[in-house]
C-alpha cells in the first residue's frame, strides 16, 4: 500500500468535495455566521481533514459523514427560510441589551453576556458610555448593533437639507489588463471608446498596461496602471529587512 | 447560453461527486480477478487442497502466486479500502507463509480460512 498516493487521492477527493459543498451552502461570511454555523463549519472541515489523513477508516465512511452534515445543513437552511418560527427557534432572536441608556441586566444574564463584553463592543462601535445609547441589540451572530441617541448621531447631508448626487456602484472595465466586454456593453460603451479614453486622457497605448479601470456613476474613469512611479513620502518600516 | 451555464454550474459538480462515490465504493469490483494470475480465491482453494494432501512444495508454489495476486489486488483497492483491511490480509499471508514453511497443517488451514474471510469482507 502506497500511503503517499492514497493520501494524495483522498486529499483531492476531500478538497473538491468541500469546495462543492461550501459553494452550495452559501455566501455567508465568517463574520455573519451564527454560533451553529460556526460549529457546522468546524465539523465539516474536520471531517474533510480526517478523510484526507485518517487511513484507518475507509474514505467512503468519512465521505458519507461529510455528506450527511452538508445535507442536514441544507435542510435546515431550507426550513429556516420557509418558516420564521423555526428560524427563530434555531438561530435565536436578537436581544435588546441597552434601552435608553439603561443596561438590561436580566436579558444579559440569560444570555451569559458580560458587561465587559458589552462595553468592549460598544467601544469598537465608537461609543464610550452607555448613556449615549438609545438602543443596543445583540444580534444572533454575536455582534452588537447600536443606535445612538439623536444628539450623539453624526450629522448627515439630510440634516443640513443639502442636495447630494446619486452615487451607485462603479463598473469594472479592465481587470488585470483584460477588457471586460460584458461590463462595457452593460454601460452602453464599447472597446473603441475605452481605448480612446485611455489614450487621450492618460496616454495609455495598450489596455494590458492597466491593472484596474473603473467607471463610476458620474462617468468618471479611475485607472490604476501596473508600472506607476509612486514616491513614498514616509517609510513606515523601522528595520532594514523585508516587510 | 443560460442552459450551458446551468449545465456547467450544476451538472459538473454532481458528476464529480458521483465519480468520487463510485471510486470509493468500487472495492467489491476491483478485488475481483482481472486475469487468472490475480484470482486470489482460486489460489486459496488450491493451497488448501495441497495442504490437505500434504503436498508442501506445491502449496509453497501456489502461495507465491497468491502473494503476487495479492500485490496486484492490493494496488487496485488501496484507494478505497482502509489501512486495517489491507494490513489484516497481508498479515494473514505472512503467517501463512511461515506455517507452510514449517509444514504446519493446523496453522496453515487457520490462516487460509482467515484470509478467505478477510477477502470476503473487503468492500462489504
Structural features, described:
The complex is a heterodimer of chains A (243) and B (124). Chain A has 8 helices and 8 strands; from the N terminus they run ααααββααββββααββ. Chain A is an alpha+beta fold. Chain A folds into 3 domains: 3-88, no CATH class; 95-152, CRO Repressor, CATH 3.30.240.20; 171-225, CRO Repressor, CATH 3.30.240. In chain A, a hairpin with a 5-residue loop joins β3 and β4. The two termini of chain A are 45 Å apart. By secondary structure, chain B is mainly alpha-helical. Chain B has one domain: Four Helix Bundle (Hemerythrin (Met), subunit A) (Up-down Bundle). Chain B is built from 6 helices and no strands.
Keywords:
heterodimer; A: 243 residues; alpha+beta; CRO Repressor; 3 domains; 4-stranded antiparallel beta sheet; 8 helices; 15% strand; extended; B: 124 residues; mainly alpha; Four Helix Bundle (Hemerythrin (Met), subunit A); 6 helices; elongated
Largest sheet of chain B: none
Based on Cα principal axes, name the global outline of chain A.
extended
Give me the Rg of chain B, rounded: 20 Å
Structural class of chain B: mainly alpha
Neighbour order of strands in the largest sheet of chain A: 2-1-3-4
How many beta-strand segments of chain B?
0
Residue share in helix of chain A:
40-55%
Architecture per CATH nomenclature, i.e. the level-2 architecture of chain B: Up-down Bundle
How much of the sequence lies in strands of chain A comes to 5-15%
Beta-strand residue percentage of chain B: under 5%
Give the averaged pLDDT of chain B, no decimals: 91
Number of helices of chain B: 6
Count of DSSP strands of chain A: 8
In whole angstroms, how far apart are the ends of chain B? 44 Å
Number of helices of chain A: 8
Count of domains of chain A: 3
Please identify the structural class of chain A as seen in this structure: alpha+beta
Query: Unreliable runs of chain B, pLDDT <50, ≥5 residues?
Result: none
